[in-house]
Amino acid sequence: MLTIHADSRGRALAVEGAGIAEAGPLERLVAAYPSARVRRWPGILTPGLVNPHGTELLEGAYHPDPREADELGTEPLTGDALTALAPDDARWGASARRGVQRMLAHGTVAVACEELRRRTVRDAVARSGLAVVDRPAPRPGGVPSLDPYACGLPVEFAPPRVPGSPAHFAVFDTPDEPTLAAQGAATCVATIINGRLLYRRR
Fold first, then answer.
1. Could you read off the pLDDT of 129-160 as tens digits, one per residue?
2. Could you give the domains of the chain?
3. Nearest by Cα to 14 from 37, 44, 46, 48
4. Rounded CA gap, 58 and 38, in Å?
5. DSSP per residue, 121-184
6. Alpha carbon of 118 to those of 63, 125, 126: distances in Å?
7. Lowest mean pLDDT: which of 94-103, 128-137, 146-155, 161-170?
8. Whose CA is closest to 197, among 175, 168, 173, 176?
9. How far is residue 30's CA from residue 38's CA, in Å, rounded to a whole number?
10. b/e per residue, 128-155, with b = 16+ CB within 10 A?
11. DSSP class of residue 77?
12. Half-sphere exposure of 175 toward its Cβ, with a 13 Å CA cutoff?
């Protein structure tokens, strides 16, 4: 089934299966695909984000379960706190799944990683649908953050949304790109990978 995703500026993407069929003004796409389902989003459609610190966030940090908040808090654990916790493989896998979900909630569609050493972490990433961008060495500079706008490095986007390309994109509840850069990726309302809605803010 073909779906047209449109933002508040009238910009739209026609998505069929895992790919983009066409991009353009909403009115033109509705006329071209009269039987398509139309999904209107607040804010702006953009290419999805690439998080440059995939290794650090998935294998160098533990993302507490909400049920652990009283004991561990809600922020990722690193350094001495992570060493003291000493997660086993099962716990690392659960942490990676939560980390991936939190990345999706920030419009992330790909992560830059060195080779992931833990099988449970690799499995969590593979099952999520996130693309993995090779990174041969630790990313110089910046601070690992779930929000790519907060890490101190230039923000990287997934490839442009053109007909025939994979349907990887995000929706942010901001009026334009400069406001998105100022407010950050926590404004994400939806993340779509391969045409699948993997995150939607409630």
1. 899 988 767 666 788 999 999 999 999 998 87
2. 2-48+160-200 (2.30.40.10), 49-150 (no CATH)
3. 37
4. 35
5. HHHHHHHHT-EEEE-SSPPPSS---SSGGGSSS--EEPSP--TTSB--EEEESSSSHHHHHHH-
6. 15, 11, 12
7. 128-137
8. 168
9. 8
10. bbbbeeebeeebeeeebbbbbbbbebeb
11. B
12. 0
Counts for the chain of helices (H) and strands (E), in that order: 7, 12
Instruction: In whole angstroms, give the CA distance from residue 43 to residue 41.
Output: 6
Token pair listed for 14: 């026609």
Dig out the tokens for 21 from the structure. 């069929």
Average pLDDT of the chain to the nearest whole number:
92
pLDDT of residue 192 exceeding 70: yes
Which of 76, 92, 132, 104 lies closest to 200, judged by CA? 104
Q: Looking up tokens 């009238």, which residue turns up? A: 10
Residue 69 buriedness (CB in 10 A; 0-12 / 13-18 / 19+): exposed
| CA-closest candidate to residue 4, choices 47, 31, 193 | 31
Taken as a whole, the chain contains a residue count of 202
